[in-house]
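Table S4 entry, Methionine aminopeptidase.
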Amino acid sequence: MIEILNPAELARARVTGRLVADILQSVRSRAGVGTNLLEIDRWVKDMILAAGARSCYVDYEPSFGRGPFGHYVCTAVNDAVLHGLPHDYALADGDLLTVDLAVVLDGVAADSAISFLVGDARPSESVALIETTERALEAGIAAARPGARIGDISHAIGTVLGEAGYPVNTEFGGHGIGSTMHQDPHVPNTGRPGRGYTLRPGLMLALEPWAMVDTARLVTDPDGWTLRSATGCRTAHSEHTVAITDDGAEILTIPTPPTAA
C-alpha cells in the first residue's frame, strides 16, 4: 500500500515527527556511561505515553522477527545495527549506540534513528562511520523531489556509502510511511537512477542509510530480533521521515528548536 497524505494529515505528521525527534534527542542527552538499555526503554515509554502516542514496536510482529517485539524503542550497540532489542546491558565509554524510534500520534506515524558515541572516547573509525551515514541521508533527502524516482534516492545514498568504502546491504532500507510504520515503496540503500516509483507531493518516506565497516552480511542474535554485522565490525544508522512537497522534501523528524533565554 502506498498512501498519499492530504494537507491535514501532513500537519499531523509534523507533530508526530517532532515528538519522535524530541524523544531521540532526550535519549542522546541523558544516555551516558553506565546507562542500561532497559532504562532507555523505560524513558522512551514514559515520554510516548505522556504525549498520548503509541510506539510502533511493542506489538510489532513481522515475519522476520520473533515477535511481538515487546519494547518501545530499538537500541543497538557497536556491531548491532537494526532491530536492537533492549536488554540488560550498561553502556561503556566509547560504545556506538543507535536508537531507532517510530510512533503513531493522531493516526500518523513517524520514524527516525540516530547513532552516537557514548562517553568521552571518540574512535576515529566510528566517527567516520556515523558521519558517512549522516551524509548519505542528506544526499538521499536532496534527491527526493516530485517527479524523481525511488532509484534516484537509492543511487544518491549508495554513492555516498560506496565512495566511503562501505559495503551496502539491500535486505533492509527505507520505506513508505503514513498511517502505519512500514508501507510501500521500499527504498534500498543503493540502486539505479531513473528507476522505480515516481515521487509525488503527499508521499511520506522514511529514509535510512545504515552501514557496516567491512561487510554487507547480517546475522541475527538468539533473541530473534537484533541484527549484527557478520564480522563483528561496528555499524551506524541515520534516519529521517520526510514528506515530498511541491518543492522537494520536508524533513519531519526535526526536534523542537530551543527557546531563547
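The first strand starts at residue 54 and ends at 55.
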